[in-house]
Amino acid sequence: MSHHMTKNHPDSPNGQDDISKNDSGNPTIHEIIDIRLSRRGLLKGGAGMVAGGFMSMGLSACVSDSSKTATTAKGFSLGFTAVAKSLNDVLSVPTGYTASILYRTGDPINGATPAYVNDGTDTAASFDFRAGDHHDGMAYFGMASGGSGMDLNNSSRGIVCMNHENINQQFLHTAAEAGVGFSTAARVAAQIDKEVNAHGVSVIEISKAGGTFSVNTASTYNRRLTAASDMDIYGPARGDTLMVTSYSNAGQKTRGTLNNCAMGITPWGTYLTCEENWAGYFKRPASGGLSAKMATAQNRYIGSSSSNGSYGWANPTGGDTSGTGLYDRWNINLTGADATADYRYAANTFGWVVEIDPFAPASIPRKRTALGRFGHEGAMPAPAVAGKPVVFYMGDDSRGEYIYKYVSTANWSSADVGGGLAAGNKYLDDGKFYVAKFNSDGSGSWVELNIANPTISGYATYAFANQADVLINCRLAADAVGATPMDRPEWTGVNPSTGDIYITLTNNSDRGKTGTTTGGKSRGLDAANPRYYSDLKGAATQTGNVNGHIIRIRESAKDHSATTFQWDIYLFGAEAGADATNINVSSLTADNDFSSPDGLWFSRAVPGLMWLQTDDGAYTDVTNCMMLAALPGTMGDGAATTITNTAVPANGNANQTVATIAGKKATTDTLRRFLVGPKGCEITGITETPDGQTIFVNIQHPGENTALADVASNTTASFESHWPDGGNARPRSATVVITKNGGGLIGS
Ligand code: FEO
Ligand code: CA
Ligand code: CA
Ligand code: CA
């Protein structure tokens, strides 16, 4: 089964996208903190240099209307030749740029671990010291050149934190094992262990020598966190009865972080990894034995099914003989006398934003429950401002799910830079948690999800016990207050030049269909989700919002803790040849047409430069997934627009006209294709060195559509991809390093 089929595409057989899935984009830490001190030496002396300067760095409009060539406030313009769409098994970058491989699935992170054989014989245990699979969101934290500690402006040495979202199961095991197959009803325990260990997060030190970056396998900062690693639970749900398991009767700990999709960086210098498609991994009851309340919660997050879960991790042959519930923890059936004796609430310990301190390798990551539980795509911060709350924007990637925001109670103080997880306790464990509502007139509001709201405490569908329950089951609380169901919210990003918030809405095959979805959410059109249409992929008809769009928010008075905002639709995904009035609304051309925007990330080195990455399955008859560079203008730079959606009789709908607000139409000066990936991949995850002269981009799951039978028979010629190693090799996810020949800002 493929990553796309299981997780990213709306019409997956097991419906995981109906459940949850999430990635977040991200300002790098450089966007948030502008400091030059080593982290451990900082303390109060370094206070003054932080975020204050951040907002002052350019509130003028990004894009000049007066000249044909768009530039940022600082005079940056896109200067490369657009990369053509491609179906080849290669990574394409513009002429004059060089891409090299940094870190592939299986690459060792210490000197004791042998090179990856990549034929399925590499051991499960070795994955505690190898790159995991499915590289996703990541962030570069500059390190001091000599010794240890933080120097966020260092462009030649840093720690990269990187998510490993999922696995290409067929390539993790031997041909003989592939021949037997991977029935979810009975798994070989060692295969489960390898799959568990290939998930999670990498923390790796990298440095540049002779102009080339490589992983320092001798670094004491290097570590892998997997779906088995110890995790602490923090915030309002810590110790709640709904977090109790046989592993932690106190409800304060769990094992593993899972489906780490997009990410975030905190102003104090830690990494946030976000758990997206965890829901499908659990062996779950068909509802027998569940209380009505438990069934409601399970249906809203996981679905009512007797499935063994995506990979059958709860079903080792011969049962769980670990003595510690290592496999039983994936089974949320009621098997014990009460919650202290089984794992009925284990799924409540996933679906969180998890904080990792890259500079404290012995620290245990903390799941921050104040930021809500859902299919977290990512958690991108607004620029930190002294004396103001710290704010994070978050998408819940599933059809018809919501956009959320967290506003800390504590006001930001730069004295906390370098404060690690203790600073996290201050800012991430106590705050207000909001969901977004979009009105048809271009206004919107953030509705706080708090048990004190009678609409929530009195919700007929689900009786919330307390605020912990509201956070654990925030989708239900958001349903109660009438949040706006969106076309699969993915990454978020805040433009440092304008303060505008951008959120990718990747696609939604449900949009425009008649009837309702699980959870009762509307599939109807609205101003913020205004399109349905039909599009051919080869001979297959695809319907709904096939190509996705990107919504843009401006908080009232540009205050990120505001509870009201204005919005417009910055950009509509489309094929260049699609109907120019109602589908290709943004006037995309061959140089910049795309489908299914997912990764979205603002450079710090070049304020106003945005990168856009695709996770597409709709336009892949024409091109592999891609990355584009954008100079995205400002909120309100377009015009009121009417979209006439043509009936798709198969969906039961009729012609329907929707009034919306579109951003300024794209040109090749404001949006240009920079990269196209190899076959079967998704482009996701990007970070940069602080000087803007090196970017790191993740190529996820090349060759994912390769048939298990071809692996079993070692019919390598039939593998969808051999990237990056070529020849007959099994494909591998990988981080690539991209530089401009002769130096210079990437994209210029
Ligand atoms: Fe893991 Fe929504 O992408
Ligand atoms: Ca996606
Ligand atoms: Ca994603
Ligand atoms: Ca098409």
Structure description:
With 748 residues, the protein is mainly beta. It has one domain (16-281, 294-740). The strands form eight sheets. Strands 13-14-16-17-18-25-24-21-20 form a nine-stranded antiparallel β-sheet. A hairpin with a 2-residue loop joins strand 4 and strand 5. It is globular, with a radius of gyration of 24 Å. The two termini are 40 Å apart.
Summarize the structure.
The protein is mainly beta and 748 residues long. It has twelve helices and 34 strands.
Question: What key attributes describe this structure?
Answer:
six-stranded mixed β-sheet, 748 residues, nine-stranded antiparallel β-sheet, globular, 34 strands, binds calcium ion, binds MU-OXO-diiron
Strand content: 25-35%
- Tell how many strands the DSSP assignment holds: 34
Distance between the ends: 40 Å
Strand line-up across the major sheet: 13-14-16-17-18-25-24-21-20
How is the main sheet built? Answer: 9 strands, antiparallel
Structural class: mainly beta
Rg over CA atoms = 24 Å
Multimerization state:
single chain
- Global outline: globular
What is the tally of helical segments?
12
The averaged pLDDT comes out at: 90
Extract low-pLDDT stretches.
1-68
The helical percent reads under 10%
The structural domain count equals: 1
List each distinct ligand once: MU-OXO-diiron, calcium ion
